[in-house]
UniProtKB/TrEMBL annotation:
It comes from the Bacteria. The keyword Membrane applies. Keywords: Membrane, Transmembrane, Transmembrane helix. The chain crosses the membrane at residues 6-23, 35-53, 111-143, 164-184, 190-212, 233-252, 290-308, 329-354, 393-410. This is Uncharacterized protein.
Length: 438
């Protein structure tokens, strides 16, 4: 019952947040310090709340402490300790909460070493505190103390606060590193930025979608003359990606897999919250996820690109892409091609909204939607075939709302293309086809 009350309060606060997204920029400019302080205080209060329908935290603490005693989570599954007789009461409680205890870890070396540093004595409070310090420092470094509306919306986003400071999810490491990455990019410190991006991709491979934000900064006309100019930038990215594999291997030289085979096994064997599947099933076809929409988005983006005058084409395209949230849409559709739609995965799209200074409501709705996945049949006391099964009614609700949001975005894109088409069809004055003014 306590969990249901907690989720109800969270839902009401989230609805209030979505209403706040519609507030004008002047409101955030006037109350920026108060809003920042509110987000900070809420984070601290969440330190003392138990996880809400989530159990990943137990594996974080267990594997962090496993490393501390010199054992590698890539080689020893939690199940191996179930018959140990000398476990403390805390260790027994942590072990009992771990899902899939027969699996070794799928987390990257950086994440595991981070857990080892900040889970001393199975302390969840210490891990949350480290999250807060890292996030606050990196966000202040990025914003320089000047908070705009999208940045403040990030800071008070209830889904982010819940998933990180109540449920412990380490996606905050990705977000914090992305603030540093974008700061280095802004200051044209591309080598340092690429190192950070390599580390971000190391943490979660689907963060590779941020590669585009580096590629579009490249001045191809200058660089194509000598491929040697590319080497420092490529090298720094590879170092960021690989360095913690090397560090972990030095600590545990018997490591060979780094959880990669488990990661592929996880993606191949598990599906979760696939809310487009029942939608396509209505039409009697296989689950296409968002692939048709992604294909259409690529098509209209290409058409828009070739419709722009060659002079300053890239700058105009990127400017319009930000206004239309094209970066976000590509990222969202990329994530919805995955077999698992965990609610916290979509948090990595928030920096895209902040960087593009998005003023739209629908991206925040799309990031919030996967929260419906917490309404599993088991929690609703409905018969289920597997523990994390979600009723089709909730999946269809998610799909319907998401499609409404996507259609709204496509409407804005088509309006723009229509205007461009009309402009390109107007001939210069005096030419045939200019139009009869008589």
């Amino acid at each position: 019952m306590q969990q249901w009350i907690g989720f109800l309060i969270f839902s009401l606060v989230t609805v209030l947040f979505l209403w706040m997204v519609t507030f004008p920029k002047d409101f955030y400019k006037k109350y920026n310090k108060q809003i920042f302080l509110l987000g900070f205080v809420i984070r601290i209060l969440c330190f003392f709340l138990p996880p809400l329908w989530e159990d990943d935290w137990s594996r974080y603490l267990w594997e962090g402490n496993l490393i501390r005693i010199g054992k590698s989570p890539y080689q020893i599954a939690p199940l191996n300790y179930f018959k140990e007789l000398n476990l403390s009461e805390t260790e027994i409680q942590i072990l009992s909460q771990i899902n899939h205890p027969d699996w070794t870890t799928i987390y990257s070396p950086f994440v595991l070493l981070y857990f080892a540093l900040f889970s001393f004595g199975f302390s969840g409070l210490l891990l949350k505190l480290s999250y807060l310090v890292f996030e606050t420092a990196s966000f202040l470094f990025f914003s320089k103390g000047k908070f705009n509306k999208p940045g403040l919306l990030y800071w008070i986003f209830p889904v982010l606060v819940k998933e990180v400071y109540i449920n412990f999810h380490f996606e905050i490491l990705i977000l914090s590193l992305l603030w540093i990455y974008f700061s280095f990019q802004r200051e044209k410190k591309i080598i340092a930025a690429n190192f950070i991006l390599g580390l971000v991709i190391h943490i979660k491979i689907f963060s590779i979608l941020f590669l585009f934000s580096t590629i579009h900064k490249i001045k191809f006309k200058k660089w194509k003359r000598s491929w040697v100019n590319w080497l420092p930038y490529l090298f720094s990215g590879f170092v960021g990606f690989l360095i913690f594999y090397l560090i972990y291997f030095i600590i545990f030289p018997n490591t060979t897999d780094f959880g990669i085979s488990n990661l592929f096994k996880f993606g191949g064997n598990f599906k979760f919250n696939q809310y487009y599947e029942p939608f396509w099933r209505i039409f009697g076809i296989t689950d296409l996820k968002t692939f048709p929409f992604l294909l259409q988005l690529i098509t209209v983006s290409v058409f828009f690109w070739i419709s722009i005058d060659k002079e300053k084409r890239l700058r105009k395209f990127l400017s319009t892409a930000r206004k239309l949230d094209l970066y976000f849409l590509f990222g969202y559709m990329f994530l919805t091609l995955l077999p698992v739609y965990n609610p916290w995965y979509f948090l990595i799209l928030i920096p895209v909204l902040v960087i593009s200074k998005s003023q739209n409501l629908s991206p925040w709705i799309l990031i919030t939607l996967p929260q419906f996945s917490y309404f599993t049949k088991a929690r609703l006391s409905i018969g289920f075939t597997y523990f994390y099964e979600i009723p089709d009614s909730f999946l269809l609700l998610e799909a319907t709302i998401s499609l409404i949001c996507l259609l709204w975005h496509f409407k804005q894109i088509f309006i723009l293309l229509y205007r461009i088409s009309n402009i390109s069809n107007i001939a210069p004055k005096g030419n045939i086809g200019y139009g009869n003014r008589n």
